[in-house]
Design a protein that fits this description.
By secondary structure, the protein is an alpha+beta fold. The protein has a single domain, classed as NADH Oxidase, CATH 3.40.109. The protein has five helices and four strands, in the order βααβαβαβα.
Length: 140
């Protein structure tokens, strides 16, 4: 994950690797009810945080670059996990302050996403993606 590109070379990210069953349940309780069981039952939950302390680009660094760093790292994590036959999902619907409190996350770190990881019970069907022409603009 530390091989991911970093905006401004800040590497403004920090990760919590949660294996403890009780803590996984606490973290899952901070998520929407429909996701709780799947999150709590994952063998590992990665809590990916943006690090405001690693910032030399003012508000843009704090509000954008640190989130870019986390996002690039999590994408690498998900690709690596998939290559090993593991399943993982990006969970953004959670109560940040409750996760912060459960893990005693310092104020300069901001939980951006939760990534439960494990061997999938079933292979999900890929969902339909937007056509490329709807997301690309070519300037010629």
């Amino acid at each position: 994950m530390n091989a991911a590109p970093s905006a401004g070379n800040l590497e403004s990210r920090h990760f919590y690797f949660v294996l403890d069953e009780g803590m996984k349940k606490k973290i899952a309780s901070c998520c929407s009810e429909r996701q709780r069981e799947r999150i709590a039952s994952a063998p590992l939950i990665v809590v990916a945080c943006a690090d405001e302390k690693e910032n030399r680009y003012g508000e843009r660094g704090k509000n954008l670059y640190s989130i870019i760093d986390v996002s690039a790292s999590v994408e690498n994590l998900l690709i690596a996990a998939h290559s090993l036959g593991l399943g993982g999902v990006w969970v953004g619907a959670f109560e940040e302050e409750k996760v912060r409190e459960a893990l005693s996350v310092p104020s300069y770190l901001h939980p951006i996403t939760l990534v439960p990881l494990g061997y999938p019970a079933e292979k999900p069907m890929p969902h339909e993606k937007k056509e490329m022409k709807k997301i690309f603009t070519f300037i010629e």
